[in-house]
Design goal:
By secondary structure, this protein is an alpha+beta fold. The chain is 39% helix and 21% strand. It is built from 6 helices and 4 strands. Helix 2 packs across helix 3.
Length: 143
Amino acid sequence: MNSVLKLILEGESLDTAQIGKILGMGPEAVERELADLRRQGILLGWRPIINPSYEAERRVRAVIEIKIRPEGVGGFDGLAERISAFEQVESCYLMSGGYDLLVVVTADNLYKVAGFVHERLARIDGVQGTSTHFFLRAYKKDG
């Protein structure tokens, strides 16, 4: 595995100067390496990780289990893409088991999540049922 990529995956939030110091490279060399990883499609992007207690004061997160009726031509894909397009949807997964899609949403409060489910999801042709679960506390996130 590429040494810069390995350090990014295993390390904390390091800037290019810190990565370079650890690996014995200059920051410019690290930048070139990161650009090369992006060009190769290996490194798709960066995202900040926010302290869950800070995030909890600002937004509400929920997981919605959705039972759907697959469309004739597109199967699950068409409905999953329509649902994924909503701004509240953080991620959407096709699942095995008792429901078809698992959707993670964020909103300003519980009522806005409920409104999203009632006014948007439930009205989509092909959605047969939903079950919503709210995140209460994060003990571990992304690692």
